[in-house]
Amino acid sequence: MILQHTADGILSGAIIGLGAIGLSFTMKILRFANFSHSELLTWGAYFGLIFISVATAMGGFGGTFGPLSFGWPLILALVFAAVATSLLALLLHHLIFERLAKVTGHMTMVFASFGVALLLRNAVLLIFGADPIYYSNTLQFAVKLPGNVRVLPDQVFLLGLTIVVVIALHLFLTRSRTGIAMRATAESPDLARVSGVNVNNVVRWVWVIGASGAAVAGVLYGLTVQLRPELGFALILPLFAAAILGGAGSLYGAVLGGLIVGLSENLSVMIIPTTYKPAVPFLLILAILYFRPQGLFGEKS
Amino acid sequence: MTGLIKGCALALAATICIAGGANAQDCPVKLGAILPVSGPMGQVGERISNTGAFAVKLFNEAGGVKGCPVEYVLRDTQGQSAIGVDAAKSLVDLEGVAALIGAVSSGVSLPVLTSVAVPSKVVQVSCCSSSESFTALAEEGKTEGYWFRTYATNRSQSAMGAKLAIDSGFKKTAVIYVNTDFGVGLAKRFEDDIAKLGGTITSSVAYNESQQSYRAEVTKALEGEPDSLFLVAFPVDGATITREWLALGGTDNLIVNNSLRSDDYIQAVGAQYLTNLVGYDSAQPRVASVDTFNELFEAEFDGPPDGPGLHSVFDAVNVVLLAMEQSDEITGDNIREGIRAVTADGGTEVYPGVEGIQRAKELIAAGEAIRYVGATGALQFDANGDVQAPKMTWKLDGETNVETGYMSTEEVAELIKMLDAN
């Protein structure tokens, strides 16, 4: 059973990691803890739903891929959700966070993000209702891997896609001018500005990358679990745990943090009653803040 | 605040008009209700509350209590114990009610009982709380007889679950249950009951409500390769668990508790995956008074009284109002005795509806004993204020659920006696 819990942990950790990337970047580069980030996962998932519904209404695009529960509409829905969620994030930045950043401090931004989170969450509730929704009502059955481990084919796709996204982001951050400018801004916005970096542009890129990661994580979560208005809200603690664990601003830190959170949540049920599982991310946050406040990959400041 | 005062003035004027020159009784007679009309149980709670109000309306059409119209004073609990206790306190202290109807969840009813009803000597009759904690409390004498419920306890639920598992030929059952007073009590009883009937438990896993995914819980419950699953859950989370259970290779031999006899649950999982599901639920006895209620309800609400708590809240209201009618003076203590009096064996049977209540009032006025037989049949409160109810078993036929068996109150009592004995 330990293998099964490990597999479950890695798979749920991949989603948390993907979602935590954006959170980690906003914490480092925009310098505030964005509590509305988790709602971008929710919106991403529901944007995906809109696309899939429209695609299905138009007759769909052929069947499903092999053992997977979906076909082309979901792949396109991922792209659509990433674009739509990025636009939403840019809108929030433009209307709220950019203005506030000019006139107030970090704490106001944090509280504002709480308000934005409430607004976003209840908007989903208002538009789509409270009932859980599935992209496909057909149940997908797990396949048995060696070692008596059961995984859903969709989950294998999820893991693969996460790896692809992380590699792509790594290349972007190390090879492209924008990526390098982002890292420079993370180090010191003032130095970056005097070196000719367009900081406003960088900030917009942070939102786009964060929102796209959140949207992909949201759609994958919707695919392998379900869609609910509280989808993102329920993940907020694991997301923060992952981002803090990894160290703000670190790509691999966020992903590794996600995996650690996912694994420890799932493995914990082997020693503690399942009802205490939601407390595990809390304990992780406490432990990391106590022993290594800058996170695993963070630098001491 | 002005709105409140205006409202009171209006209500006062109205009651004076209706009551005219009534007797010494202060009019109107107030009946408090504490029900979750909003929050996660809002849909269920609102239907229950409307049915309670309907019972009051019929009673008023029959002449009210002691010539006074009855005012149904509803307070929302939102399904939360703190709000429920506040609501009950305000009903008792400010509105001066002598009896409370409610609450729905055991977790709300219990603190209301111990911190409001018993200390204030006010009768509390719940339509829906099934936890065995109340029985235990009553046995310790801590309810002082102020507690009644018109809904059968958990005791019969675990017995029915175990019986279904054994009758279906299952040997190794896994249990997944909701981590509430209700679920914990039921799961614990189930373990004892199924052991006595010759089955075994592979694992018993609690889950917290409103989580997104229950993969870890399901994986744990899959240990030991169970041949069946007893699921104690509510529709939304229950559907999530069932989907993950089936997807991860769990058996489709499912035994589900009564709250999952709901279209929400069946549609969310997909009826095609639930062909081997069996369940149980409380049933109404097969007597004429139940049909009378069903007809009255249909005429009022344009639909059948399907859903939890409707029959039982109707009877909760009626026994309290009849007990008031029976009392010289409307006090908690008198109602406590009155409820026993109007449901005791040997009285002339009276039935729901305007005519039935009118007949009951005539008999009471003439000093004769009555026996209320209502929407849940002939109520029989035991020393702890508990009732037993018949049970039915069901399965799915396509999308609709069909009854597969019926056990009368006596048969259920027999089963429980057998399980408790050895």
Task: Label the overall shape of chain A.
Answer: globular
CATH topology term of the largest domain in chain B: Rossmann fold
Content-based structural category of chain B: alpha/beta
> Within the largest sheet of chain A, what's the order of strands?
1-2
Indicate the proportion of strand residues of chain B. Answer: 15-25%
Low-confidence stretches of chain B: 1-23
Identify the CATH class of chain A: Mainly Alpha
Q: How many structurally independent domains of chain A?
A: 1
Helical run tally of chain B: 15
Task: Give unreliable regions of chain A as ranges.
Answer: none
> Residue-averaged pLDDT of chain A, rounded?
91
Query: Averaged pLDDT of chain B, please?
Result: 89
Tell me the radius of gyration of chain B. 22 Å
> How would you spell out the order of helices and strands of chain B?
HEHEHEHEHEHEHEHEHEHEHHHEHEEEEH
Tell me the span between the first and last alpha carbons of chain B: 61 Å
CATH class of the largest domain in chain B: Alpha Beta
What brief labels describe this structure?
heterodimer; A: 301 residues; mainly alpha; ABC transporter involved in vitamin B12 uptake, BtuC; two-stranded antiparallel ribbon; 11 helices; 2 strands; globular; B: 422 residues; alpha/beta; Rossmann fold; 2 domains; 7-stranded mixed sheet; 5-stranded parallel sheet; 15 helices; 15 strands; disordered N terminus
Written overview of the protein:
The complex is a heterodimer of chains A (301) and B (422). Chain A is an all-alpha fold and 301 residues long. Chain A has a single domain (2-291), classed as ABC transporter involved in vitamin B12 uptake, BtuC (Orthogonal Bundle), CATH 1.10.3470. Chain A contains eleven helices and two strands; from the N terminus they run H-H-H-H-E-E-H-H-H-H-H-H-H. Chain A has helices at residues 2-30, 37-57, 72-103, 106-128, 153-175, 177-187, 189-194, 199-224, 231-246, 251-268, 280-291; strands at 143-145, 149-151. In chain A, a hairpin with a 3-residue loop joins strand 1 and strand 2. The mean pLDDT of chain A is 91. With 422 residues, chain B is of the alpha/beta class. Chain B has two domains: 23-151 and 287-378, Response regulator (Rossmann fold); 154-276 and 390-421, Response regulator (Rossmann fold, 3-Layer(aba) Sandwich). Helices cover 47% and strands 18% of the residues of chain B. Chain B is built from 15 helices and 15 strands. In chain B, the strands form three sheets. In chain B, strands 7-6-8-9-10-14-15 form a seven-stranded mixed β-sheet, with helices on both faces. Chain B has a five-stranded parallel β-sheet with strand order 2-1-3-4-5, sandwiched between helices. In chain B, strands 11-12-13 form a three-stranded mixed β-sheet. In chain B, helix 14 (354-365) links the parallel strand 11 (348-350) and strand 12 (370-374). The radius of gyration of chain B is 22 Å and the shape is globular. The A-B interface holds A 1, 4-5, 8, 12, 131-132, 137-142, 144, 150, 152, 221, 225-226, 228, 230-231, 234-235, 265-266, 269-270, 273-275, 277-278 and B 179, 205-208, 210-213, 215-217, 219-220, 222-223, 236, 239-240, 243, 246-249, 264, 268-270, 273.
